[in-house]
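Here is one record:
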Amino acid sequence: MKAKKRAVTILQTVFLIILAVIVLLPIYIAISNTFKVSDIILDQPLSLPIPPTIQNIVSVIKSPNTNMLEMYRNSTILMVAGTALTVIVSSMAAYYLARVKTKFSGMLRVYFLIGIMVPYVIVYMPLCILLRNLSIPFGVPVLIFVFVSGNISFATFMYTNYIHSLPIELEEAAEIDGATRFQVFWKILFPLLRPCTTTIAIFVGLGIWNDFQTPLLLGQIKTITVGIYTAVGPYSADWGVVFAYVFFAAMPVILVYLVAQKNFVNGLTAGALKG
C-alpha cells in the first residue's frame, strides 16, 4: 500500500514538473531573448543571454515610431474602463435574468448564450462598416464599448449562474424594510458577488490587455500589444525588438499577479465552486 502511494506521489510530482516547464518555458524564452541580439536568437533561442545586452529595450524606448507611455496609457484605459463597464452592465443584466421570469427574460437569456457561441472576429467587418456609415470616429471610447459588447455575454452567463445560488430571502427582507430594487442590488446583492466579480475581472481584464487584433483592426489604436507589430516588417523582423515588446507587454501582468496572487487564486476558486 505504501509502495502504491509512493508511486502515485512520484507520478504527480513528475506531472507537475512537466506542467511547470510547459508553462514557464514561454516566459523564459520571452525574457531571455529580450537580452540577446537577433542573430543569436535565431541560432540559439533557448540559450542564456550571455553576454546580455539591453540594446533591444533601448531601441523600443527610443523608437521614433512608438511611444511607450502612450501605449501603456491606452492599454490601461481600455482594460480598466472595459472591465468596469462589463462588470456593471453584465451584473445588472444577470440580476434581471436570474430574478425575473418572463418570456422576454427567457429570450434575452438565449440571446446572451448565442453571443458566447459566436466568434467575435467575424463581426469586425460589419462593425467597421456600421461605424463608418454612422460617421462614428474610431478611437479609444469606441474601442471600450467594442470590448464591453464582446465580453458581456460571457460575464452575464457567469453572473446569472452565481446569482441563482444566492438566497432570495435576503432581497425580500431588504424590500420589506423599504429598500428599492436598485438599492437591493447594489447594497445587498452586489457585495455578495465579489468572488464572481473577481473571476470575471481577471478573464476580461487579461483578455483586453492581451488583445492584438481588435485595437489594430478597429482604428489602429496604439496599445502595448500593437507595438509588437511595428517590429515586424513585410520581409523580415527584428526578433530582439519583438521580444522586447513582448517583455514590456508581459511584465505588468506578471508583476500584478505576483503581488496579488492570493486574490487571483481565491477569486478563481471561489467563483468556480459557487457558480
